[in-house]
Amino acid sequence: MSLTEHPTHIMPISSSDVVQHPHFGPAMPGLNWVPAPRYLMRRDRVFRHLTDIEPCRVIDIGCGPAAQLSELAQRGFEAYGVDRSDQALDLARNFSNPQNPMILRAELDPTWRGRFDLALSFEVIEHLDEDVAAMAEWREYLKLGGLIMISTRAHPSRWNAADVWAGHVRRYTRDGLKEAVTGAGWTCRAFVPPQVLV
In 7-110, at which residue ranges do the beta strands (DSSP E only) sit? Predict the structure, then answer.
């Protein structure tokens, strides 16, 4: 199954709490977690960009409930997720199962350095005071030639109370994001409006 194909029926993927929607991916309505519209738009965009990437070892930094990571595990990716939220990791464990396992941790494990082909980090760096230092550290976890895909909040002119409530410390301009990413030692391959970096 390609990354853009979807199942044609709803089916459980892990436990009785998890369902697979034919268009929107996994959800846990019984646990009050269903994908938000912004997540669904990013999910679609991410899977389109991953179409040409063969299953490999992937790490999702700030994985949250790891719904998207679980879909990659289903497609044969060796999936690792990191999130500091105990609540998010509890939800994520519902998506992991013996057929599609995910390794989930609260922190990056130093023994993982140099092990990953692909890193994902969605809606994380805008929360970090030291965004460049964090992205530089993430590079250490990828193999030579590894890729990272980042999504973050854009348009500083749209800063509002919701950003404060969410714990954001910044929004990015295109040039500001490129400067942060290259300052961390990465090479930018593509910007995808409005905010995804591949």
Answer: 19-21, 25-27, 57-61, 78-82, 102-105
- At how many degrees (to 10) do helices 67-74 and 37-50 cross? 30
Q: What is the largest CA-CA distance in the chain?
A: 46
Give yes or no for a contact between 122 and 150, defined as CB atoms under 8 angstroms apart: yes
Q: Is the pTM of this model over 0.85?
A: yes
How many angstroms from the chain centroid is the CA of residue 179?
21
- Please list, residue by residue across 144-177, b when 16 or more beta carbons sit within 10 angstroms of its beta carbon and e when fewer do: eebbbbbbbbbeeeeeeeebeeeebebbbeeeeb
14 beta partners: none
Whether the pLDDT of residue 96 is over 80: the answer is: yes
How far is C-alpha 17 from the geometric centre of its chain's CA atoms? 22
HSE-up of residue 64 (Cα within 13 Å, Cβ side):
13
Residue 193 has pLDDT above 70, yes or no: no
* pLDDT tens digits, one per residue of 77-94: 999 999 999 999 999 999
Pair of tokens at residue 161: 């109370």
Whether residue 6 contacts residue 23, with contact meaning beta carbons closer than 8 Å, is answered with: yes
Rounded Cα distance between 8 and 60, Å, is 27
Window from 41-45, 119-123, 171-175, 191-195 with minimum mean pLDDT: 191-195
